[in-house]
Design a protein that fits this description.
Blueprint (H helix, E strand, L loop, with lengths): L1 E5 L3 H12 L1 H8 L4 E6 L15 E3 L2 H5 L6 E4 L5 H12 L3 E4 L2 H17 L4 E2 L10 H8 L5 E7 L2 H13 L3 H10 L8 H4 L2 H15 L18 H9 L2 E11 L3 E12 L11 E8 L3 E8 L3 H17 L15 E2 L7 E6 L3 H10 L4 E5 L4 E5 L4 H9 L5 E7 L3
Length: 405
Amino acid sequence: MNLAILGMGTVGCGVVEVLSMNKSKITGLIGEDVTISHVFVNNIHKERDVDLKDAKLTDNIEDLYGADDIDAVIEVMGGMEDTRDILKKFLEKGIHVISANKDMLAKYIDELTEVANAHDARLLYEASVAGGIPILHAIEHGLNANEIHKVMGILNGTTNYILSKMTNDGWDYEKALKESQEKGYAEADPTNDVGGFDAQRKIVLLSRLAYDRKVDIEEVPVTGISNVELKDIETAKKEGLILKLVGKSEFDGQGLSVEVAPVFLPADHQLSSVAYEKNAVYVNGNAVGETMFYGPGAGGPETASAIVSDLINCWRNAGRKQFNLTPQQTASVKPSQSSNKYFIRFNAAEADVKAHLAGLNVEYSVVDADSGTTVVTSPIDPEQLEKLKQNREYRIESIYQVEGD
């Protein structure tokens, strides 16, 4: 099998390493050798720590379009519209595509899968969600006997690292962010991670697959962690609550509620123990019940593991009619109608907060009254929540959903 790789950064090099490290096993699984025949990069003169001497290295994508010996393409270069157009051209030639590009896929996956199906090619993208965790394969194959009604997870290692340092070591946000950048978890511009947008793209891809519905990423609300304050984390920790950035979607058969936001979890919740750069995903099915998948959310070899797995699975099914999930219905994305508990810090005296909440028929417990008043409410419905937010007299300094009973 001849393979083209688009991009040779950390993940691209990881793919080369995995193919070399596990060559005999991979060859045995697919029945033939994998040859990296073409590599597309921006800079063909850059030194790389992997052996590419037998590959045709080029910075001109037209060289790959003209090749007639490419069986599959691995895309790890990033990009949006230009990358979509490049992948479409390969799919139109019946060439299988494996991509780790969550940004592009979250927006254009339906368009690409339609092209792939029309030309009997596969589009696989395990590495685009949760790195080395085989969550997409699990949903599409391992849990396909179930009607899935909920997906929830920690989907971004950078934000989980920051919140873990704040929770476990008492660091403030800026200090934790700085170290995450020094360790290479966060970019120099961390907006994509700390703003929640990376997790947004992943929950869109997970929800699309879990519920067989197209999901418009523009309809998915996002709240990041850049405004999280250490004092809320420390106050909640005393009450047995741990803050995590969670991507969550629930489908009731008609409408889909989906969002990304910081959420307090009970300390005994399994997601609470998912620390630092690790990821984890819960999937609830009507037959299997609650399942959890845990592992590394990023990294060169870890992400490459998912990419090469897609490559093996794709080639082992060669000769069969290819099929890619292309939902025929678009999800009706709506705010959750569930009643939930909330952690709320008011800039008001306890007596005033007590009168205010009593007027809204909201039950609560006070967890701190030293500076303003912080409470954890009993489950309240969306209408009560909106009334709380709209009242400016008792200013809300922070508010977080509390997951669980």
